[in-house]
User: Which sequence fits this backbone?
């Protein structure tokens, strides 16, 4: 599961009866990042426990606030409560149901991408329950494309293709695979792979824009960093337009954009902060000393060096943000801004550079 940014609690445990509450408190102590939610008749025993006056309302309020939920109650109750809250497998939290006797831990929702299968196994290990996993790939002991994508930190651009690719994995049907950086490694081995032009189910792992059949699952590695410089007060609209048009012109997917990077004197630049927030990507800052150490500058600026003290903002910050990866888009300009793009050698993650203004990534469109 991805790090939960808004609170130290990533998992919600729900209990309606004293027996369920006892089991829930044991789980809370073992999981450490879990918070217990109690029905109205169960008294709280600690300040971090939450009482709800009505279970349905409480679940609706907190459903999106956690990465996973463990309901210690009947499966039917849970199904009726969450049915209206379900959106899509790419955004729904993990849901696991545990009976009060602690005999079965059922992965109910978001088994792969949400991590419910993994959470169910964890709950089973802690309680002695039997994990109940019904996803076809797990039952057949084959890798699942969406699980691999989640583990590798790959953004799924067309989740509708997951079903066909997973079926090919289950039935041992050959897959067409494009993965020039070998980001998948040996995760598909020993599954047969097809050569030649893409046809039928396949997997495409890259940050470039290519026309592909609908059956090909497009997985975007988060390894592009856009370095940006701008005049004070440049609008978010101009910055975002320069960014999206440049990526499209150079046939780069905006879904592979990991972060924006700039000089630290722009920490309070409203336009950059707004673009970062709207796109759900980090905004990274570098000081003058760090920027001046970058040697691979293609289009330095004497004007920038005179006024700011660095020969480059956009190109240097892009390279640094990409962990000294190559510059693949040299400096581009709009009336009030500059932009460059660098590519990291491998997918970046939240644990890489220090970041600010981070929010949940959503699919982006040109």
Assistant:
């Amino acid at each position: 599961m991805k790090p939960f940014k808004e609170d130290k609690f990533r998992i919600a445990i729900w209990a309606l009866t004293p027996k369920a509450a006892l089991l829930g408190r044991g789980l809370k102590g073992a999981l450490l990042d879990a918070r217990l939610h109690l029905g109205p008749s169960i008294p709280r025993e600690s300040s971090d426990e939450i009482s709800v006056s009505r279970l349905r309302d409480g679940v609706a309020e907190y459903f999106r606030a956690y990465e996973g939920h463990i309901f210690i109650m009947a499966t039917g109750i849970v199904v009726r409560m969450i049915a209206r809250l379900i959106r899509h497998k790419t955004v729904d939290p993990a849901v696991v149901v545990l009976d009060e006797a602690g005999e079965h831990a059922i992965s109910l929702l978001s088994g792969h991408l949400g991590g419910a299968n993994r959470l169910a196994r964890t709950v089973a290990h802690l309680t002695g329950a039997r994990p109940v996993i019904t996803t076809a790939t797990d039952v057949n002991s084959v890798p699942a494309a969406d699980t691999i994508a989640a583990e590798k930190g790959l953004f799924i651009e067309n989740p509708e293709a997951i079903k066909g690719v997973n079926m090919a994995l289950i039935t041992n049907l050959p897959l067409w695979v494009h993965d020039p950086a070998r980001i998948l490694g040996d995760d598909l081995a020993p599954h047969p792979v097809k050569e030649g032009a893409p046809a039928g189910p396949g997997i495409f792992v890259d940050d470039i824009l290519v026309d592909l059949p609908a059956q090909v699952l497009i997985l975007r590695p988060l390894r592009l960093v856009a370095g940006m410089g701008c005049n004070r007060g440049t609008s978010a609209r101009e910055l975002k337009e320069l960014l999206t048009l440049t990526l499209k012109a150079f046939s780069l997917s905006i879904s592979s954009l990991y972060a924006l990077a700039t000089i630290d004197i722009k920490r309070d630049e409203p336009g950059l902060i707004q673009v970062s927030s709207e796109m759900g990507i980090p905004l990274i800052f570098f000081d003058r000393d760090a920027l001046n150490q970058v040697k691979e500058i293609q289009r330095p600026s004497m004007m920038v060096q005179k006024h700011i003290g660095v020969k480059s903002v956009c190109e240097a910050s892009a390279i640094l943000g990409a962990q000294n990866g190559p510059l693949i888009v040299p400096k581009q300009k709009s009336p009030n801004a500059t932009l460059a793009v660098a590519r990291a050698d491998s997918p970046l993650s939240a644990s890489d550079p220090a970041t600010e203004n981070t929010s949940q990534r959503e699919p982006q469109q040109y």
Summary: The longest strand covers residues 224-230.
